[in-house]
Amino acid sequence: MKLDNDIALARRLADVAGAVIRPYFRAVAAERKGDATPVTLADRAAEEAMRRILTAEVPRDTVIGEEFGAVSGSSGRSWVLDPIDGTAGFLAGRPIFGTLIALMVEGFPVLGVIDQPITGERWIGAAGMATTLNGKPVRTRPCRELSEATLATTGPHYFDDHDGGHFMGLAAQTDHKRMVMGGDCYNYAMLATGQLDVVCEAGLKIHDWAALVPIVEGAGGTMADWNGEPLHAGSDGHVIAVGDSARLDDVVEALACGH
């Protein structure tokens, strides 16, 4: 699958989103959505800027965005946008949020971008290519035993009681003294760069995870649902990322044993 033109387009989307977002960083108050999650003018303006480019250049492609929903196309291709993944961190002035841009073909992600517009870091992953950070290849790190793994999640309050029990079952089998809380998409970028071993989350929407899959897998890792199955447009939002693919079965087993 030749994705050079799509990668170039994704870079332009990240450029325009970053240009919109940067002036708002540490300078904007939050509103509240109907579901009580924070949202800012930056979210909406960045998504609008990206959608304008996609409408002009790939009008037959579907566009799915966190802020403005889905506009269906006829090509079998979908661009999935999350202008600010990690809005709470953004509002706290912490540069560990990211703009997520994904291209899915027939329901499976083939191209992903994590762009951190404040630090100037950009991860790009695409099918058949090595993941890069600012143009230089990155790799996940080996993990000999699950007990040695550093686990990350955005926060325990994002799990309901049932999922939280399973997550704690996993946490108990990892190096829990080094467990990382907070980070949203930045955790997956750090896993792809060899800084973390496992990320585990539940309740994610497609715009939260689609861009992450090509980045993690192009760096040598694996992303899956909690049953170890590949992620696709119909996945239920239970997501794991594993830097060393040899540990995937261990993670799935640990999650299943939790209660």
UniProtKB/TrEMBL annotation:
InterPro entries: Inositol_monoP_superfamily (IPR051090), Inositol_monophosphatase-like (IPR000760). Its cofactor is Mg(2+). The keyword ATP-binding does not apply. Mg(2+) binds at E66, D82, I84, D85, D208. CDD domains: Bacterial_IMPase_like_1. It comes from the Bacteria. Belongs to the inositol monophosphatase superfamily. This is Histidinol phosphatase-like enzyme (Inositol monophosphatase family). It comes from Novosphingobium hassiacum.
